[in-house]
Structure formats: structure tokens, C-alpha cells
Design brief:
alpha+beta, two-stranded antiparallel sheet
Amino acid sequence: MPPLEFQLTGESGEQVDAQTFRGDATLLFFGFTHCHDVCPATMAHLDSIMGELDEEARDDLQVLFVSVDPARDDPETLREYTENFGPEFVGLTGSEDQLDALTRRYRVTYGYGEKDSEGYYMVSHPSAIFAFARNGEAQLLIRQDDEREDVLSDLRRLLAQG
């Protein structure tokens, strides 16, 4: 996998790039705030696992939640969503071009379903979590079905890299 690189909009409305997040180990997860199952379950699972790390380790780890639904997920919506999980969680989104560039970079796809009569639609997105070292180098891929203890062990190794 290539190193972490992007230009997106942060949950405070500012333009950010990958350099903004250098220095901490980083987990990257694609989703959207109106997701009913995968996103909240994955975010809660990560929050729970991070709760098993000591405070110093938690301070050195961040989760970037990249919304692939910018039509509904403006910075304020993202901030409200990530606040449910803790200060280590940061919401990001971008234009279609920015999101396409980032998802192509990591060879994942997303798409939009048909709108229902109330205008609601689903968004398909990857469920894997990309893990990057403090310098932005890709390290591993965390899947939904990975055992909790394995993920915790992987995160501890990632954080120990210094």
C-alpha cells in the first residue's frame, strides 16, 4: 500500500492534508454518518479496543473517519458524529475528485444507491481499516472479522515503532 497522502476538509471546515496527522499512528476508515451498521459498529469497536490501551498510547493513535458521502456529511455533521467516539476520532471529507483520488490510491470503491421516496440512499464503502505508522507509511489492514486480541496486539506493535 502507498503511504498516507490526501487533501481533504476536516471536521472544523479547514483544509488538511496527510502531513497534518504525521507524528501519530493513524487508522483510516471510509464510511458515512448515515450508515446504520458497519460504520457505527466499526467505530465503537475501535473505541472499545483503544480503551484497552494506556493513556499515552491512546494519545499517539488517531482514527481518520473519511466520509464518502459529502452531500450529507458536512464538517459539522462529521464533528458531531466523531465526538460520540472520543478525541482520537477525526472526521474528514472532500470533493468527489478528492475522494476518488484517495479511494483509488488504496484500491477501494464506494457508490451510492437509489434514493427512496423520502430521498434517503445507502452508500457502499469498504469496511477495512488501513493502519499507518507515525511517518505515514502503510503497515497493515484491519478487517472486520479480525480477532479483538489480534487487533489490539497489532495496534500495540504499531505504536511501539516510535
